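Inverse folding, one chain.
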């Protein structure tokens, strides 16, 4: 067992770390996760702000 860990220890550790990072990424990107909620809120805020603009009128320049 000691020889296996001496020979493959770094590879085993890399696989464990990659699995942990993958799990965190999948959890964060779920449709009801915090990343999806923040992205949805940002898009809704953008389109709510854009709905107040009317076509053909430019905003007044500020100096």
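Residues assigned per position:
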């Amino acid at each position: 067992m000691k020889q296996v860990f001496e020979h493959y220890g770094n590879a085993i550790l890399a696989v464990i770390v990659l699995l942990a990072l993958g799990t965190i990424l999948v959890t964060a990107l779920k449709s009801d996760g915090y990343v999806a909620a923040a992205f949805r809120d940002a898009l809704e805020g953008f389109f709510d702000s854009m709905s107040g603009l009317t076509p053909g009128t430019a905003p007044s320049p500020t100096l």
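The chain is about 70% helix and 0% strand. The first helix runs from residue 2 to 28.
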